[in-house]
């Protein structure tokens, strides 16, 4: 049983990522629940120093996800924060944190175990942007690339150091000049790759990149790109 964190921004602004996550996990053999009573993970409250609000949100989610074998988040900022629930909700929070997985972790694991298919169609290059909350906070680097390769994409690296895109949760709103400077550096590196598809596993990064890239670029979650490939392969619409 996998419980999916719906989140506050993801559910309203990026529902297609939830659809891809649910469909992919079900294909891998998971029973996916969207537990009643869940709420925002509390990351933004924690970032802004609203400790009481962050603790209240954590405690609510601890109760909501009590029966799940694993708790999945498909935004890296959320999965990173959920893994820190021991700090926000004590022993019960530590228990939940031990069951949290970022969706790229679980999907990559399922692909490597043979529970999910790998495409043999070359879908061209994809530029990979590593969200700070995935690469630096959770040390998750290989898994998004496993997912994208299984979708038939050729990985094009933007930078090996995992430069911040400038979003950083609410930080980008409070420091627009510094945020814009980081975004421009990231965008210049994307332009240099020659790829018009960019994969990023965090909603904040997606919004930042979309705001600075031209309309001919597509920014999408690795699992979103993977599930599209699975559907296309099954329908025989590519090639």
Brief digest:
54% of the residues lie in helices and 13% in strands. It is an alpha/beta fold.
Description:
- The protein has 239 residues and is an alpha/beta fold.
- Helices cover 54% and strands 13% of the residues.
- A four-stranded parallel sheet has the order 2-1-3-4. It has a four-stranded parallel sheet with strand order 6-5-7-8, with helices on both faces.
- Strand 7, helix 12 and strand 8 form a beta-alpha-beta unit.
- Helix 2 packs across helix 13, helix 4 packs parallel to helix 6 and helix 7 crosses helix 9.
- It starts with a strand and ends with a helix.
- The mean pLDDT is 91.
Explain the layout of strands and helices.
Elements: E1 2-4, H1 9-13, H2 15-27, E2 32-33, H3 43-47, H4 51-64, E3 70-73, H5 76-82, H6 85-98, E4 100-102, H7 103-113, E5 124-129, H8 132-135, H9 142-150, E6 153-157, H10 171-174, H11 176-193, E7 197-200, H12 203-212, E8 218-220, H13 222-235
Parallel strand pairs: 1-2, 1-3, 3-4, 5-6, 5-7, 7-8
Helix pairs in contact: 2-13, 4-6, 7-9, 9-13
Rough shape? globular
Helical segment count: 13
Amino- and carboxy-terminal Cα gap: 36 Å
* Mean pLDDT across residues: 91
């Amino acid at each position: 049983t996998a419980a999916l964190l719906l989140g506050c921004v993801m559910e309203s602004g990026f529902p297609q990522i939830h659809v891809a996550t649910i469909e992919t996990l079900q294909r891998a053999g998971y029973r996916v629940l969207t537990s009643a009573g869940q709420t925002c993970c509390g990351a933004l409250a924690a970032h802004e120093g609203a400790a009481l609000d962050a603790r209240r949100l954590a405690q609510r989610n601890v109760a909501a996800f009590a029966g799940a074998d694993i708790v999945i988040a498909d935004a890296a900022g959320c999965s990173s924060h959920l893994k820190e629930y021991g700090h926000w909700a004590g022993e019960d929070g530590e228990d939940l944190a031990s069951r949290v997985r970022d969706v790229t972790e679980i999907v990559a694991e399922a692909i490597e175990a043979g529970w999910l298919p790998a495409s043999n169609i070359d879908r061209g290059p994809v530029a990979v942007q590593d969200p700070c909350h995935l690469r630096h906070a959770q040390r998750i680097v290989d898994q998004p690339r496993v997912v994208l390769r299984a979708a038939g994409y050729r990985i094009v690296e933007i930078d090996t150091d995992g430069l911040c895109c400038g979003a950083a949760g609410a930080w980008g709103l409070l420091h627009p000049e510094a945020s814009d400077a980081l975004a421009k550096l990231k965008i210049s590196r994307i332009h240099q790759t020659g790829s018009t598809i960019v994969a990023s596993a965090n909603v904040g990064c997606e919004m930042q990149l979309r705001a600075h890239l031209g309309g001919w670029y597509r920014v999408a979650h690795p699992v979103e790109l993977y599930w599209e490939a699975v559907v296309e392969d099954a329908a025989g619409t590519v090639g």
